[in-house]
Each structure stands twice: as C-alpha cells, then as structure tokens.
Amino acid sequence: MFHVHAFNPHPLLRQYIDAYLVVSADQAESGYIEYIFLPHVTQSLVFGLDTGNTVYSCNQSAYCAPHFISGPHDAVRRVRLFPGMKKIVVHFKPGGLFRIFHLPAQYFNNCSRDATVFLGKKIKDIAGLLRNSPLSRSIELMDEWLTGEIQLQKKSIRNMDEVIRLIELNKGNISISELEQATFTTKRTLERHFLEQFGLHPKTFSRLVRFNGVIRSLESNLNVKWRQLADAFGYYDQSHFIHEFKNLTGGLPQDYATLKSGFEK
Prior knowledge:
By secondary structure, the chain is of the alpha+beta class. The protein has helices spanning 96-101, 115-119, 122-131, 135-152, 161-169, 176-183, 187-198, 202-220, 226-232, 238-249, 256-263; strands at residues 2-7, 17-25, 33-37, 44-48, 55-57, 62-63, 68-70, 77-81, 86-92, 112-114. The chain folds into two domains: 2-152, Jelly Rolls (Sandwich), CATH 2.60.120; 161-263, Arc Repressor Mutant, subunit A (Orthogonal Bundle). It is built from eleven helices and ten strands. The longest helix is centred in the last third of the chain and has 19 residues, at 202-220.
C-alpha cells in the first residue's frame, strides 16, 4: 500500500511550497506498486530516506536517483514503488523551485533527474539529517534549510505571478496575445521567462490548468454531461473536449471511473 502524509511549510515558505509530503510503500503481492500520475504543472524535490532503487520510472525505463527533482509533466507518468520506499517530498507551487534555487524548470519537464547534480553534496547531507531525525524535527529542518536558501538568493527574477493569476482566473482559457497585452511583454520574452520558471510553455500550462479543472469537476460529479463540461471550460465543442481528454489521459471521459481506479492502484 502507498501511504502519504502531508505537512504545511513555514508561513514564509507558503508562496513557494504547497506542502511537504512523507510517502512510503509497503510490501505488495507483485513486488511493487504501480502508480499512475495525471499530467500536472508542479515540481517536486524528493529526499530519499531509504536505501535507494525504490522508485522506478516506467517513462524513463530507469530507477530514479535516491534524491531527485521531478516535473512538470504534460503526459501521464507511470512509476513503480518498491517495498521499503520512504521519501520526503517538497511539493512546490508553480515556479517555486526556480524562485528558491534558480534552476530552469524546463530541465525537469517530463522527467526525474538526480538532485545532487544540480544542488550538490548538501542534498546528501540534508537527507542524512532527515533520516536520523523524528518526523517533527525533519519538518523543522526542511523549513530552516529552505528559508536559508531564499535569503541567500540575490538575483532578480522576472515576476510571472500576474501571468499565472490570469491563466487560473480564466480557467486556462486565455490566449498568448491576451497575456502579452495584460503583462506588457512580447511573446518571445513571455515564453522564455515562463519556460524558465515553470518548465512549460504558457499554452501547455493553460491546457493543463483547464484539464485539471475538468478533473476536479468529474471528481465532484461523475454523472456530469460532457457537453456541460466542454462549455464550462471553454472547449470549442464536445469533440474537442473528448480529443483533449484522450490526448492527456489515454482514455475517454466516460471511462474516467475506470481510469481513476488505475491511477490509484
């Protein structure tokens, strides 16, 4: 079984981080648990508290490093979680990883990469402290380290908060030209800074915001009519909605209940 426990970060970190997640996996009959993640716009920094080789990426056909950075993903991702897996995950808000560490988000688009390559030996040192500390102290250690990293950063960052606000306000239904006009930037500048901070082009990010809105609606009412969803989220028509849903999940909207059970295996 796959276990997840969520903890809030320090108030000073909440503009960057959604939550800390402590995740673990028990013994499974098949020897591993296969988990399916829907497309999403967020990134994660993962600290391994286990012995390694406990998370296998089916998309990359390789085991993830003990400590890794992952996401965003614009396609379904499959991972296998092996017995003994235990991780502490820093689940960032869009752009949060870039704002703290200045790591271009496109480096991690649709993949997981070794965190020590980008953040150095300190990742192993912090993981050692986390491994040997009780859970409450581990959360405090994460807060202390990340607030310290923020204070060390001296570079100025082009603020994309207004772009994100507009995309979310419009449920993903806003054109690049409208974003240019609202933020007084050119298309090239907008796309370059957005890709650097969020790892996706604004158009792809908007597609995923709209898609995740659809998923939330389905979660609250599996009997909703597809035409209503298509209209509510600004798809051209029902055919466009069905095509987009299949493109992102590999299945049809009417099969979502079955798909969802697969995502939660």
